[in-house]
Amino acid sequence: MAHLYDPSSLDGETLDALLYDRLNPWGIADVFYFDLVMESLSVLDVGCGTGTILRRARAEGHGGRFAGIDPDAAMLDQARETDIAEWRLGTAADADWKAEFAFAFMSGNAFQCLLDDATILESLRAVRRALTDGGHFAFDTRNPAVAEWRSWNPDHPYETVDPLGATIRIHHEASEPDANGLVALSSVFQGPHWDKPLVASCQLRFIEPDALDALLESAGFAVAERFGRFDRSPFDSSASPSIITVARAV
Prior knowledge:
This protein has 250 residues and is α/β, with parallel strands linked by helices. The protein contains seven helices and eleven strands. 24% of the residues lie in helices and 31% in strands.
């Protein structure tokens, strides 16, 4: 990735993408999806980012078909450094495969980037079309009951080391959700390369489980399994930090 990293030309969004793997090292969430990938003959990674999970699965001997789609060009450039999958630039709704995959997944809370019911439904329907009958779609989104956004504030900074060896300090600033469950989030990066902080801004949607299930049903899915943590603990609507869903294409 170092050859992509020119601090003088970066904005906050591109910096966030280039540091993604450093800020999100391999962990229990990746293992959860990795295990499901290894059980499936053909896999579509929706919101694939840098392609970490598919790359690990290929390295561990998976010989089936892989495809990944992501709307972030800087992320996808990193995925395209390997040819282990078919990589496409686009949103979940842009997926135009037809009954070609046994399994699809959307990791890293990427589901929260679908900001309204219409976008969620369009995206779910595209994923459903890409799956064979009886195929499965696994994804995660944060549970709004836990109000995790309240911990995303300047009192909780952290650091990483960039590809040039410089220490980058990061903190977040988040709003309370609006009537549609949308939280405005800013990630603020400070480091020796820049005279002033770089800021990456986005919105994330926190959706209630009942509303989520209604959209899944409308798109042709039935919930097969649901967990509250990536250790496969049962989902508790009032206490689980995540809504981790494995849905079956019906």
